[in-house]
Amino acid sequence: DKLFLDNARDLGDRLLSAYAKGGVGMPSNMVSLQSQDLNQEWEGVKHHLAEFGTTQLEFYALSRETGDMKYAEASAKPLVAVHERNKNHYLLPAHFFGNGNKASPEAYTVAGYADSYYEYLLKAWVQAGAHRGDMVHDTGKRWEGAMDEMIQYLVNRRGGVTTLLEVQGLLNGGFLHMQMDHLACFAPGMLALGTHKAKSLLSFEKRLKFMEIAEELTETCYKMYSTTETGLAGENYRVFFGEIQVADKKNMLRPEAVESLMILYRVTGKNKYREWGWEIFQAIEKHCKVEAGYSGVRDVTQEPAELDNKMQSWFLAETLKYLYLLFSPTDVVSLDEWVFNTEAHPLMIW
Predict the structure, then answer these.
(1) β-strands 346-348, 338-340: how paired?
(2) Is 94 helix (H, G, I), strand (E, B) or coil?
(3) Coil, strand or helix: which one is 169?
(4) Of 235, 243, 306, 343, which one is the catalytic site residue?
(5) DSSP 8-state secondary structure symbol assigned to residue 274
(6) Which residues of 31-45 are buried (b: 16+ CB within 10 A; e: fewer)?
(7) How far apart are CA 128 and CA 176, in angstroms?
(8) What is the pLDDT of residues 170-218, one digit of tens each?
(9) Whether pTM exceeds 0.90
(10) Annotated catalytic residue 235
């Protein structure tokens, strides 16, 4: 529809002003859509990996629909620069300076500040479908290498529990922080999507390995819910030998765990993922539903739950959508026809 395309182009042009600083193409993290002025950086001189690495799907789609490659090229430029500086290192620190160099102190994680960068390395490759030769910047091999290093440095398998941790300092030799964030629960779904959609990229043996880790991490994310008094997950968990224990006890109606449950069910067909999702949904209905919507919870270990009176935007956009798709036939928004951006909006695979 021309009306929507014209508006998408207008919005894209306004957002492109964020890339006007030149250099290696790092975008400003604040821009006025009215004046297109760049505002003060909310993190000073630092740029987050998940910030400049999470515009590619949308700008690639806009370039494809308009025929104008300026959107895709602007979005890919900072990735090209950072990847060029880290040719032999695939797991990247969470923060960079505007010149594309690593910012200190280094921290390596696939949770906050970095998460959707890794998601988009894979999903941009999936989105390209049969047209990967036309990609401005092919990120398939970068994703594969990043997952190899994630498993090597961040995945912790002890006492029958598999967790996804963070390294503070240098990747090889830094401090392994024994804590797992709920935000990291998107990762098992990402791994499973890779085994399903990247068969031409990954060896059979690697697909088996990635799927094994995905299933183990998904079980851990389920335990974040099943081990609390309310059946709701906290924000993060301390990791001990053979167990996890809730640290930050608030629940913000986050989507990452049910996102992975949906993908794992569709990839494996195992009904336990639907059963786990149903338990989570019932806990949300019991403790979070109010007259005007749903609310987060201040402490998942206490009953009756004390509400925080906030319904985050991602609850409707992502959490409920992924729960709906978990219980829908697998051809409803099929993973073979659509790829979800980081806010769960489906974009067509080309």
Answers:
(1) antiparallel
(2) coil
(3) coil
(4) 235
(5) H
(6) beeeeeebeeeeeee
(7) 36
(8) 999 999 999 999 999 999 999 999 999 999 999 999 999 999 999 999 9
(9) yes
(10) yes
